[in-house]
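Schema walk-through. Below, the input block comes first and the output block second. Nothing else is stored per chain. Lengths vary across the set, and this one has 335 residues.
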Amino acid sequence: MAQADIDVLTIGNAIVDVLTQTEEDFLVREKLVKGSMRLVDAGESERIYGLMGPGQLVSGGCAGNTAAGVASLGGRAAFIGKVRDDDLGRFFRHDMNSIGVRFPTNPLGADGTATGRCMILITPDTERTMNTFLGACQELTPADLDRPTIEGAAITYLEGYLWDPPKAKEAFIEAARIAHAAGRQVALTLSDFFCVDRYREEFIDLMKTGTVDIVFANHPEVMALYGTEDFNAALEQLERDVKLASVTLGAEGSLVLGGPEGRVQVGAPPVDTIVDKTGAGDLYASGFLFGLSRGAPLGRCAELGALSAGEIISHVGARPLGSLKNLAAQRGLSL
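--- output ---
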């Protein structure tokens, strides 16, 4: 097997986030489930945007955020996702290129579906409620996969949200096939417990058939995956179904399953003020995958994940404000 020239390739929805602070009353009035992600069409996207207060534009999307985190840690990152050649699409591409993330996907033409965007409503308790218009993201197909990039990546990371559009689902499976044929690893994030509810059996099948080797999830997603309120029972099933898993536990840190040392739990570093939880899971994956791609012990991978998540929740937006590589060095976590 050739040496990898990319640490982590992420494949997912290329989305520009529009973030705004809001009150609980707004969610109640609009009948929005706090903490959830719902898919909306272009009309609803415009309606919600019109009701929002002043917003901040940030390139986002789960997989894009993870790639950004890997690059900030000093890793070699790449991203595959679909945008249109419009203002938001060019904004997204510029952001990825400026932080050193390879982005080989050709955009849709100016007459194609608009670039995806997500209206993120942040309540005073720092919880985020997302309203996502996928737009051009749904146009990702197997033809958009850059084979040399996949074959050259130590780990290909796929977001669960990509399972919604049928064409993207085909790309998801083909990317895993290419990666495994090249002797590489494939990771999946479950993304959201509502996403898990939609595709529970299919996600379990991806694990049992070995289509994915590594799974990322949080506490509610694991229980939703197995339809149980018994967290320990869900963990035991997860251990049987996939080679390696990392489950985030909020303030209690994270739990790694399937490694040679058995279960490994790592605490979360203290954060002075939690401002916005958007992207916490995405950046945890950044640190964990970067460590894994460099051969670090699983405990160190989880520590890098916790460090990256801790930085991201200290400010608004799902991309690091400073160098995670420098922060890791300060905390004695350099690889």
